[in-house]
Amino acid sequence: MEFKDYYKTLGLARSASAEEIKKAYRKLARQHHPDISKAADASDRMVELNEANAVLSDPEKRQAYDSLGQEPPNGRNFRPPPNWDAGFEFSDSATDGGQHSAFFEELFGRARQARPSNGRDLHARIELDLLDVYTGADRMIVLRGAQGEERQLQVTIPKGVHEGQHIRLAGRGGAGVGGAPAGDLLLELLFKPDPRWRAEGRDVFQGLPVSPWEAMLGAAVSVRTPGGMAEVSIPAGWKSGRKLRLKGRGIPGTAGRSPGDLYLVLELALPAAEGDAARAAYHALAQAFPAFDARQGN
């Protein structure tokens, strides 16, 4: 097998920068491309240029190639030393279906690809309804790949997961090589925006509209929460931004973790002044508090 001096092919020193490699390849490719050059060996020359660029423009392949040193005295009967590639990792782009020399194939090509290699772990994000994590759920999700391809997966959402948590689906990642196991798929969980509530960690916040008389006099009300109906006592005396804490009513706990809390954020709701009776009631309220100034302190 003949040793290939890729630097010589591109007319570069071994210290050439990535930018110099790119410029040299583009210049020579324009010169020797079969659509431009009339030389009889234009196609063969282009194959050599493509191969040299494939190695030297890839940092991992270039580092591995450089570890072999310069062309040895037995360059036409070259064989790489045993385990020469230990510690190097090459991307699948080495086997791109193009023409390559025996030297390239020995180092980076199909012979390498045939070696058993575990598939890559893949990552994706999915959006869930907050209600799913209160009871757990089975959901069909659609994932889109980099090339636009789609695949459907049935996913079990465990009870008590929180936003930002990952679910590992064993064997659903990239395919293995040479009979090696496939990688895993890691799903990062996000919550869909919902006007009713939001989550911070395992705590959940929910707005609770209250009437003026409930806000000032107090009341016992029934509230629909993500975990079901709850009876809530609203204390007398309105305070802007006041929160009522329902302990343990947030995202359910899992093994070794306590449940979060549910915070009801009191929001003052004013009835519309529609009709004579409603307007009269507002006039009476204004007369009952002649000294009240809603803008005091502004």
Question: Summed up, what is this model?
Answer:
The protein has 298 residues and is an alpha+beta fold.
How would you describe this protein?
With 298 residues, the chain is of the alpha+beta class. The chain folds into 3 domains: 6-113, Orthogonal Bundle (Helix Hairpins), CATH 1.10.287.110; 122-191, Urease metallochaperone UreE, N-terminal domain (HSP40/DNAj peptide-binding domain); 202-270, Urease metallochaperone UreE, N-terminal domain (HSP40/DNAj peptide-binding domain). Helix content is 26%, strand content 24%. The chain contains 9 helices and 11 strands. The protein has helices at residues 6-10, 18-32, 42-56, 59-67, 102-108, 110-113, 132-135, 212-217, 276-288, and strands at 122-128, 137-144, 150-157, 166-169, 185-191, 197-200, 203-210, 219-225, 228-234, 243-246, 262-268. The protein has a 4-stranded mixed beta sheet with strand order 6-7-11-10. A 3-stranded mixed beta sheet has the order 1-5-4, with no helix packed on it. Strand 8 (219-225) and strand 9 (228-234) form a beta hairpin. The model is unreliable at 92-97 (pLDDT under 50).
